[in-house]
């Protein structure tokens, strides 16, 4: 069981203003900032990780906030929807909360027999709060306002929009071990039984959808979860054998990663459970310090001076 893809590990999206992004995810959505670090390829920019108390894989939404970044365009060849799992009977609470916060939201709807509330974050990123039809016992991070009765539990699913779903579906079924569960219109639901939650990928077939443009308010990549480095490298071989270009193993400090672009155009990552977010700060202090990768530590003063203020 543990040598399989264990659902979603994290999703990474692009934001504009850093402070607005941090405030929305921690204050309005009640997520924990589990790591405050910098973009390893652009250390003048933050990299935020939001999730549950420990930043458990399957709960982590991460952002690169670029202050001057203009809006992107949601379209084909990208992840176009994030689904968060919330408790039964909590959607009215969220509807009121979004009203008070001035958050753009839609009407409560139903998909595959599950109720959901669609909304957009301040950069226009599309997210649904979904009441899962399967039990979700994951412990949620709670705040004074978002309590266990309504707090987000982690990911329910991710949605990819594609001109044609077949090549992507083949990756999911033949390499990742997912199965087609149901279809509703152009939406095809794939699920893995290797894990109980964050186990769903929805593929929307949109033959004439314009290609997405990756900038603020859009998703950058989707990371799938594997137990450890050994299994990571087994998947590297399987993916390379299909003739897809895949990176070598990359040390992301909190996990080890591989990246490849699936044939439908979406950037996929595989990421390990080890070593996790307590690698450089204890669990009760997660997200409270600016953590820099070793190669930038000597440059800390200059980096701190250029990073945007969060208070
Ligand atoms: Zn990633």
């Amino acid at each position: 069981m543990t040598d399989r893809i264990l659902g979603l590990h994290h999703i990474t999206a692009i934001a504009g203003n850093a402070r607005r992004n941090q405030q929305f995810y921690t204050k309005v959505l009640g997520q924990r900032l589990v790591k405050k670090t910098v973009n390893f390829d652009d250390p003048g920019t933050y990299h935020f990780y939001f999730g549950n108390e420990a930043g458990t894989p399957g709960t982590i939404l991460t952002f690169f906030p670029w202050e001057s970044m203009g809006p992107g365009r949601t379209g084909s060849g990208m992840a176009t929807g994030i689904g968060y799992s919330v408790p039964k009977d909590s959607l009215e609470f969220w509807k009121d909360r979004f009203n008070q916060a001035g958050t753009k939201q839609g009407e409560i709807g139903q998909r595959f027999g599950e109720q959901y509330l669609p909304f957009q974050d301040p950069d226009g990123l599309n997210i649904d709060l979904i009441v899962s039809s399967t039990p979700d016992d994951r412990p949620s991070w709670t705040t004074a306002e978002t309590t266990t009765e309504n707090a987000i539990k982690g990911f329910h699913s991710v949605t990819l929009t594609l001109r044609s779903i077949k090549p992507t579906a083949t990756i999911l079924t033949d390499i990742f071990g997912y199965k087609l569960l149901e279809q509703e219109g152009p939406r095809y639901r794939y699920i893995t039984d290797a894990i109980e939650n964050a186990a769903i990928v929805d593929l929307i077939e949109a033959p004439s959808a314009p290609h997405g443009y990756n900038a603020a308010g859009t998703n950058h990549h989707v990371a799938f979860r594997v137990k450890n480095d050994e299994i990571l490298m087994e998947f590297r071989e399987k993916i390379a054998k299909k003739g897809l270009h895949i990176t070598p193993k990359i040390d992301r400090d909190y996990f080890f990663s591989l990246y490849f672009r699936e044939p439908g155009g979406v950037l996929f990552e595989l990421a390990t459970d080890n070593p996790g977010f307590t690698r450089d700060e204890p669990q009760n202090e997660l997200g409270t310090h600016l953590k820099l990768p070793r190669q930038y530590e000597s440059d800390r003063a200059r980096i701190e001076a250029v990073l945007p203020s969060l208070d």
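The chain has one domain: 8-306. The two ends are 45 Å apart (CA to CA).
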